[in-house]
Amino acid sequence: MENSNRQIRSIIIVGGGSSGWMTAASLSNALTQGCEIILIESDEIGTVGVGEATIPPIKTLNQSMGLDESEFMRRTQGTFKLGIQFIDWAKQGHSYFHQFGPHGVQFDYSPLHQYWLKSRQYKDMPPIDEYSMAWAAASRGKFDRPSQDPRQVTSMYDYAYHFDAGLYAKFLREVSEKRGVKRMEGKIVHVDLRASDGFVEKVRLADGREIAGDLFIDCSGFRGLLIEETLHTGYEDWSHWLPCDRAMAVPCESVGDPLPYTRATAREAGWQWRIPLQHRIGNGYVFCSQFMSEDEAASLLLQRLDGKALADPRPLRFTTGRRKKFWNKNVIALGLSSGFMEPLESTSLHLVQSGISKLLALFPDRDFDPLVSDEYNRLGNAEFERIRDFLILHYKLTARDDSPLWRYTADMSIPDSLKHKMAHFKRYGRIVTDGYDLFGPSSWLAVQLGQLNMPERHDPLVDHRRVDGDSTLKQLRHAMNTAANNMPSHMAFIRRHCAAQ
Q1: Counting beta carbons within 10 angstroms of the beta carbon of residue 177, is it exposed (0 to 12), middle (13 to 18) or buried (19 or more)?
Q2: Whole-angstrom distance, CA of residue 411 vs CA of residue 399
Q3: Phi, psi dihedral angles at 279 (to 5 degrees)
Q4: 3-state class of 12 per DSSP?
Q5: CA–CA separation, 112 vs 133, rounded Å?
Q6: Which helix or strand (DSSP H or E) is residue 341 part of?
Q7: Any bridge partners for residue 96, and if so which?
Q8: Cβ atoms within 10 Å, residue 34
Q9: How far apart are the two ends of the chain, measured CA to CA in Å?
Q10: Are residues 94 and 451 in contact, defined by beta-carbon separation less than 8 angstroms?
């Protein structure tokens, strides 16, 4: 029986910015026939444009949209990112690195860190960071693309990007429009629902134009014009666990060559980000308004910049959490309209990407079978909750008691799912997981050890193995340091391959 007459004929994307144009570029690349894609945005309404640091899966997204890496980097003033350095989180004066990629290479049944834990019992050992190829390169300001030969230590890391989110949106707009996406300038003043089922039928613009569609993607930012203001979907508030609800953002002049990593420094009532681009540094202070005013945060941020501020600090206000449904009727929320987890681990753009991937994997027809949207929401909820737990870990595992925020987070109750992971790690240094986790074992290891959740003992299996862990670890560290010394500097690599014009 022919079902093609039920296919989606038109998709309306409400809102531009990174999330809107990522959606337009991805859908226009996947839907090559039979579907019109329209994006409505208003120049009057600004975008948040803070998502300048990313995690490695964005490489897959860019490839799937057909983007050339070097052109993308040039167009967005991009730099490379090998991980995030956390300063003063566990305690003041202490730092660690959340690297992209594994610690070393698994040389036995048990993971490398189990041999490191055993060695620590009878000798001084370097921090676990020292067995990360990403940190060996990052700490020296070096960068090269990883080797494709798994026998080389230079294959044992991954990378992502820092870039200007506004320029990224502009670049994706060009790509999308070349593929037939139609952009409409205008401000939506009314949303019409179908009387029969409450689905969105069309949106009306201030100038009187009406745009009807089958599927609507809400990329309207925190306000959630369709998903919340129109469909009243509801919001699950997670600020009990993630109490920061404000950020002040400001760019400053570059000082020296850009580092190939993001920096997150814990502060009095939150933390400060530092994201180096080719032409400037992005900075922000994420904080809890219960413990600090916006004026005070702006003042402290300006005092702590590496270079001269290029604008006035801009406030962002948010509530951490997620929509009760990401897909409601014929509306799918992507980006800030779907929920928000503060930018601590650079997940904002990734959640747009995974929302797009799930949409393509569960693409509907005009029947909008609830079985499909329920599965989309189930997967989305699970992903949000796993990321939420990983972020809470940074706050819960702190010995800081110098200010009210840190005393609160150290004492707060946490989800059972996170308690379970922390307990296993504390006992035997084991990373337990309940399935697909965006942040894999090496990420959990970096943060648990970095936040000083030191296991009470190592995995008993290690004592049954005839493996010289000490000399293997020593050789591995030496090989990584040698390889990192031989890499080009981060800036030299950029100049050779992708310097902005």
Answers
A1: middle
A2: 10
A3: -110, -5
A4: strand
A5: 13
A6: none
A7: 86
A8: 9
A9: 55
A10: no
Instruction: Write the DSSP assignment of 149-189 as a string of letters.
Output: -TTSGGGS---EEE--HHHHHHHHHHHHHHTTPEEEE--EE
Digit-by-digit pLDDT tens for the chain (501 residues) are 445 589 999 999 999 999 999 999 999 999 999 999 999 998 766 555 555 899 999 999 999 888 999 999 999 999 999 999 999 999 999 999 999 999 988 778 889 999 999 999 989 999 999 999 999 999 999 999 999 999 899 999 999 999 999 999 999 999 999 999 999 999 999 999 999 999 999 999 999 999 999 999 999 999 999 999 999 999 999 999 999 999 999 999 999 999 999 999 999 999 999 999 999 999 999 999 999 999 999 999 999 999 999 999 999 999 999 999 999 999 999 999 999 998 898 888 899 999 999 999 999 999 999 999 999 999 999 999 999 999 999 999 999 999 999 999 999 999 999 999 999 999 999 999 877 778 889 999 999 999 999 999 999 999 998 888 899 999 999 999 999 999 999 999 999 999 997
Q: Round to whole Å and give the CA distance between 471 and 86.
A: 29
Q: How far apart (Å, rounded) are the C-alpha atoms in residues 316 and 248?
A: 6
Rounded distance, CA 53 to CA 345, Å?
9
Longest CA–CA span in the chain (Å) reads 77
Query: What are 263's strand-pairing partners?
Result: 85, 274
Q: Report the alpha-carbon angle 200-168-307, nearest 5.
A: 130
To the nearest 10 degrees (0 to 180), the angle between helices 404-411 and 370-396 is 120
Q: Is 81 a catalytic residue?
A: yes
Q: Write the single-letter amino acid at 398.
A: T
127, with CB counted inside 10 A (0-12, 13-18, 19+), is middle
- Mutual orientation of helices 57-64 and 17-30 as an angle, nearest 10°? 50
Marked catalytic residue, from 81, 142, 325, 421? 81
Which helix (H) or strand (E) segment holds residue 7: the answer is none
With a CB cutoff of 8 Å and minimum separation 6, the contacts of 232 are none
Q: Which two tokens stand for residue 123?
A: 């000798």
Q: Listing from the earlier edge strand, what are the strands of the sheet with 95-99?
A: 95-99, 83-87, 262-267, 270-276, 281-287, 246-252, 314-317
Find residue 83's DSSP bridge partners: 99
Distance CA 213, CA 12 (A): 6
Q: Residue 99: name the closest of 145, 70, 130 by CA.
A: 130
Say how far apart CA 250 and CA 357 lie, in whole Å. Answer: 32
Q: Which amino acid is at 77?
A: Q
How many other CB atoms are there within 10 angstroms of residue 223's CB atom?
14
Rounded (5°) CA angle 123-125-131? 150
CA distances from 273 to 40, 119, 241, 446 (A): 31, 34, 20, 19
